[in-house]
Amino acid sequence: MTRIRIPLFLLTAVSLTACSAATAGEAPPRAAASAANETPAKVTVAPPAAGRPVTVTASGGTLARVKVVDAEGIVLVGRTGANGASWASDRKAAPGTSYTVEATSRTAGGKETTSRSTFSIPEADDVNKLTLAPGKNTTVGVAQPLSIVFDHPVKNKADVERQLKVTTSNGTEGSWGWLTDYSGRDRVDWRPKEYWKPGTEVTLDATLDGTDSGGGWFVRDYSTRFTVSDQDQVIKVDLDRKRLSVLRDGRTVRTIPVSGGTPGGDKRSWRGTAVVMAKEGTINMNSETVGLGDAYNKMVDYSMRLTWSGMYAHAAPWNAQYFGRANHSSGCIGMSTEQAASFYASVRVGDPFEITGADTKGTVAEGNGYGAWNLSWQQWKAKSAL
């Protein structure tokens, strides 16, 4: 066998080369020295007007990281442009809010520099707020819409509606619809195409902070979450037959004799679908508040509000002789105290009352309580600003 001898000086050279090689991921000594001597990239933060995104740019390099945080610790998420030299927040800057920007730039040679700056957006002259229904973490009936009433007019309805995200546990189809609340204020409701499926979980994220409604700025986000009852309960009221029927999962489980609004005048009941807005218990009912003069002023038990205009279902012992026989109330749906007590206990806010009758004063309007169910699906979708 032939042996090849390698000179000692060649072995020494190989070892030296291996020891001096740069570790993977590290800049070679010359490159590192060059980066250290490079001029840092210039970072510019442009304080935006209210309702505009925060923007950060770098000249002489790219942006490695950008973090924008408001005074409450809320982070404005954003994204870097295609060239890596610009960044913009997804959310808009809100009036009356201070922001801290921490930006890390990187030169072509790899030198990183971090800079920090702060800026504040001036307070808004007008602020808009809202009221959400139903309440957070409540359980409601199958007809309850998600309803938002605004303190001030909303002229930029499409801009506002884009910030309202509804998520359901089962992909329920639904739509926002703009209407005028009975109070005269702007309101937007989210209604499913059909009654909710029992057990549906619903979440609203209203990311309105920094949005101009046209009647004032929003300076915070809103959210709510509620669950639909696992019981599909529908109340049918037949004013011609003077009876109320409780249906669960489509099956009649109870029938109650009632007396509705007196025919032929202002005391008639509404027809169509009304939704239980609130269970108010024992309340004072005064006819002057609904334009009926001094017809009544009394304490009423087991009161369930159906409209803003004053139609309730409640105990009406003074009308006992008329239950199941004649409509003789001032517009409400009355029943015996005993029947009202147990019925009240079984009803949920959000349960629908489907009311029929030949002699009524019209159909419940969308803004008079939750009357959206009296519109077809196509009519309701047409009320969306989008």
From the N-terminal CA to the C-terminal CA, the straight-line distance is: 88 Å
Structural class: mainly beta
Give the C-level CATH assignment of the largest domain. Mainly Beta
Helical content band = 10-25%
The second-level CATH architecture of the largest domain is: Beta Barrel
Low-confidence stretches: 1-27
Instruction: Summarize the biggest pleated sheet.
Output: 5 strands, mixed
Count of beta strands = 25
**Alpha carbon gyration radius:** 33 Å
Shape: elongated
Numbering strands along the chain, what is their spatial order in the largest sheet?
Answer: 19-18-17-25-20
Describe the protein's architecture and organization:
By secondary structure, this protein is mainly beta. The chain folds into three domains: 39-120, Immunoglobulin-like (Sandwich); 130-230, Sandwich (Immunoglobulin-like), CATH 2.60.40; 233-364, L,D-transpeptidase catalytic domain-like. The chain is built from five helices and 25 strands. It has helices at residues 8-20, 29-37, 157-161, 337-346, 377-381, and strands spanning 42-46, 53-59, 62-70, 75-76, 78-80, 86-92, 98-106, 112-120, 130-133, 138-140, 146-150, 164-168, 174-180, 186-192, 201-206, 222-228, 233-238, 243-248, 251-257, 272-275, 278-286, 297-305, 312-315, 333-335, 352-356. A five-stranded mixed β-sheet has the order 19-18-17-25-20, with no helix packed on it. It has a four-stranded antiparallel β-sheet with strand order 1-2-6-5, with no helix packed on it. Strands 4-3-7-8 form a four-stranded antiparallel β-sheet, with no helix packed on it. A hairpin with a 5-residue loop joins strand 7 (98-106) and strand 8. The relative contact order is 0.13. The model is unreliable at 1-27 (pLDDT under 50).
